[in-house]
C-alpha cells in the first residue's frame, strides 16, 4: 500500500525494514544510507542547483530591486510549509517509533537551527567547498594549492 507523501523507493525500504525483526539496528542504518545516497545523487543535485539558481537569479537575471521583506505571517506560513515537507521526508514508522510530538519537535529544532546566520554561513562555505572539490578535484591537493597561490599572488619564483 502506497501512503501519501512517501515515494515508491521509501515504500521499498520500509517494506524491507519491516519484513525482518532481526538486526533492526542494521536495517535502520541501511535505510539511512539509502536515503542519504538518494538525496545526494546527481538528479537531486540538479534540482538543488536549479532551485539555488532561481533563488539567486530569478528568471535568469539579477534582481533589479531588493526583495520584499516577508511579513511575520508570511514567515510563519513558510516555516509551517517547510516543517510539513520535512515531516514527510521519512517513512511513517519513524514518527511512530519516536512519537509524533517528539518527531515534530526534532524537525522544529532543525528549522530553528537554520535561522542562525553563523550556521547558514558555515553550510554555504561547506557546500562551496564540496562544489569546488567536485568541479576541480585537484583543488584539495596541497601542491596545487601552493601553485595556485603563487600564481594568484604574482610570485612565480620557487
TrEMBL record:
MF terms (GO), sorted A to Z: phosphatidylinositol binding
Lineage: superkingdom: Eukaryota
Pfam families, per the entry: Nexin_C
Domain Sorting nexin C-terminal, chain residue ranges per copy: 30-117
Protein name according to UniProt: Sorting nexin-19
Organism: Acipenser ruthenus
Amino acid at each position: 500500500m502506497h501512503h501519501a507523501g512517501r515515494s515508491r523507493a521509501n515504500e521499498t525500504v520500509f517494506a524491507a525494514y519491516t519484513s525482518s525483526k532481526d538486526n533492526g539496528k542494521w536495517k535502520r542504518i541501511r535505510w539511512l544510507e539509502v536515503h542519504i545516497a538518494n538525496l545526494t545523487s546527481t538528479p537531486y543535485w540538479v534540482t538543488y542547483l536549479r532551485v539555488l539558481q532561481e533563488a539567486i537569479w530569478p528568471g535568469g537575471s539579477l534582481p533589479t530591486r531588493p526583495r520584499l521583506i516577508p511579513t511575520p505571517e508570511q514567515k510563519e506560513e513558510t516555516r509551517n510549509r517547510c516543517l510539513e515537507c520535512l515531516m514527510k521526508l521519512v517513512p511513517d514508522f519513524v514518527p511512530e517509533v519516536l512519537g509524533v510530538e517528539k518527531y515534530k519537535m526534532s524537525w522544529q529544532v532543525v528549522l530553528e537551527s537554520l535561522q542562525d546566520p553563523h550556521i547558514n554561513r558555515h553550510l554555504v562555505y561547506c557546500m562551496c567547498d564540496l562544489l569546488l572539490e567536485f568541479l576541480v578535484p585537484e583543488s584539495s591537493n596541497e601542491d596545487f594549492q601552493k601553485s595556485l597561490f603563487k600564481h594568484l599572488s604574482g610570485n612565480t619564483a620557487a
